[in-house]
Amino acid sequence: MSTLLHRVLPAALTLALAPLAHAQEAVTPKLSYTGEAAAMLGGGKGSGSAYAGQAMAGVDVDLDKAFGWSGATLKAYVINRHGTNLINSSLGNSTSVQEIYGGQGTRLANLTLEQKLLDDRLVLEAGRSVANIHFLGSDLCQYFQGNSACGNPTYVFRTSSFTWWPVSSWMADAKAWVTPQVYVHVGAYQVDPSQAEDGEHGLRWSTREATGWIVPYAVGWQSSADARHKAMYELGGWQDNAPYRDPLYDAAGTPAVLSGQDYASRHGRSGVYARFEQQVSGPDATHGLTLFGAVLKGTSGQLIEDWFAQAGLVHKGTFASRPHDDVALVVTRQQYSDAALENLRLARAAAGGVGTPQSGQTMMELSYGFAVNPHLRIAPSLHYVMHPDQFNAPGRLQDLPNAWVAGLRFDLSL
């Protein structure tokens, strides 16, 4: 009898605990913290410093392993953003050098169900999420701190209602792989500006304050998972039917600065883009030089920017003795529209100044990332801002001098 028990009990315990073991295997926890410090070295509005931080806690649940739901994954992420922004205190422009600032407080940033079908050739996702982690995003963004290029090219946020992390709203997304390398991607994201207010928690799911939808789309080519050198080429765009403010005129067609009336409300904006990432050297996909670039252009609507361009490089594995360090450089150009420049000229004149602000802003960032260990990366950076823009202070009497900023980003991933 004793021998039988010794055989039967372990087998029974194994069967009883098997669902729990599978449930544990199904859960992938995510815990990370990113900090971004910035300090003025010269130019801009004057001296000063700022620090912004983002903590993330989340989980991916493989519903196949947990319940036998083939191809399904539940994704839930909570974000806390805190700190201050250098552009408000010292830099003076409207494009941050701390890309994780915005949507301050603690909120649910993502709660979606992903379903893979047709041998993973079709990926559907729906729930509460944001457009900019599905479109125009890039893993290369982790190597930069400025917001002109990362987490996405800033143009898309300045000329559309593109929803951004961590301000979630209702969405649906579909990505189909036509071949193992060619894909078609389309999504629809509800626009609700009230969700972006500081202190919102992401749990107010009513659609009463929603103002419309933005529909991004893309077609692209991506290298295979086992490729020695990674590459991605993509064409895309967006359609935005949410209301927005005219950059110059009131409802009667008179410059709002002159009439004193509210700026006119408009509907309907769109744009297109082309971008690429191409690794050009290195022994494998995790070491070597990658070049990247993008161009974005509006196609309809009254916009504050005409076009945007960026170019840069990331080199992973800088020295034989530091195989996991990286060096990164990016340059961006924002070119303003005639309407936006005329509005700024009139606002400056009304305040007693003269002249028209510069027609565009160029931002540069050079960073070096130290891989302290597999969980911690520390990256000092140097930023140069040519012709800081005046959108945050239309009545400024004169242009600000070019600005130098020192940055320090660290990423802790557990």
UniProtKB/TrEMBL annotation:
Keyword line: Signal
Domain of life: Bacteria
A Pfam family assignment: OprB
Signal peptide residue numbers: 1-23
Keyword presence, Signal: yes
Gene3D superfamilies in the cross-refs: Carbohydrate-selective porin OprB
Family: Belongs to the OprB family.
Protein's name in the database: Carbohydrate porin
